[in-house]
Write a structure and sequence with these properties.
Layout (H helix, E strand, L loop, with lengths): L11 H54 L7 E3 L2 E3 L3 E7 L4 E3 L5 E4 L11 E2 L7 E5 L4 E7 L4 E7 L5 H4 L2 H12 L18 E11 L10 E10 L12 E9 L5
């Protein structure tokens, strides 16, 4: 009887070598996929925070440029006419102020860049009120929660709403109590990633003009991932814009 040829089987050593090669390839592939997902996540965070800053900056710029004023308004302890008021509110203390130390420069704008005036205080405030004869807009930074609020109302701003510090504070508190007025994003839907957004204002007083008729606003806007300074470079994301804009209101 003719004997059938024996089939050659893999040795134990060959099996171990093949398993090791397969495991190495799978580990490399998994690492590559993980790195790709991490890169996409960082890219998405960076894109989102940049878009958020640009969106808010565009809104502030547009509203300031469209300000027309045209009516006198008593805000706490000053009379304003140009339709633009820089203010600072501490809602925890129920105190709001409008102060002259927000002037960035006291001089004339230089068309070739810079200014011809003397640089004054660089102090920032956390609020901007824009108003005219039949509407008003408010931008406010809720600093403790690092969120920016915006309120637009097509009605006359009543004098008794803003003519004292505590009434003004209650007015701003009402704006921040409505989440629909928050224009900064707190993070992607369903994501644990949270963002902090800050906006601060200073002013610009051309020579020969009063502070309370100030037509220029300088603002700094910044957004970043919460606890950004504690994160690794791979997880950080932030964006910042600094700019100056005029109301184009020269009455």
């Amino acid at each position: 009887m003719e004997r059938l040829p024996r089939k050659k089987a893999f040795t134990l050593l060959e099996v171990l070598i093949a398993a090791t090669i397969f495991a190495t390839i799978m580990t490399m592939a998994t690492g590559t996929v993980s790195q790709a997902r991490s890169f996409q996540s960082r890219l998405a965070r960076s894109r989102e925070v940049s878009e958020d800053v640009r969106r808010i900056a565009d809104l502030v710029t547009r509203e300031v440029r469209e300000t027309r004023g045209g009516m006198w308004l008593r805000v706490i302890d000053k009379d304003y006419y140009r339709g633009m008021v820089l203010f600072n509110c501490d809602l925890a203390a129920n105190v709001c102020t409008t102060t002259n130390n927000t002037r960035l420069y006291n001089g004339d704008p230089n068309p070739m860049g810079g200014t011809t005036g003397e640089r004054l205080s660089s102090g920032f405030v956390n609020g901007l009120l824009l108003y005219d004869t039949d509407s008003y807009r408010v931008f406010f930074l809720d600093a403790p929660n690092a969120q920016v609020y915006y309120k637009e109302q097509n009605s006359v701003l009543q004098v008794n709403t803003v003519n004292s510090s505590d009434r003004f504070a209650n007015f701003i508190r009402g704006i921040t109590s409505d989440s629909d007025n928050r224009i900064s994003r707190t993070g992607e839907s369903g994501s644990i990633v949270q963002y902090d957004t800050y906006i601060r204002f200073t002013g610009f007083t051309p020579s020969g003009r009063d502070f309370d008729k100030q037509p220029f606003v300088h603002f700094t806007l910044e957004a970043r991932v919460r606890n950004n300074s504690l994160l690794t470079d791979a997880d950080k994301a932030s964006a910042i814009i600094r700019t100056m804009v005029t109301s184009r209101n020269y009455q």
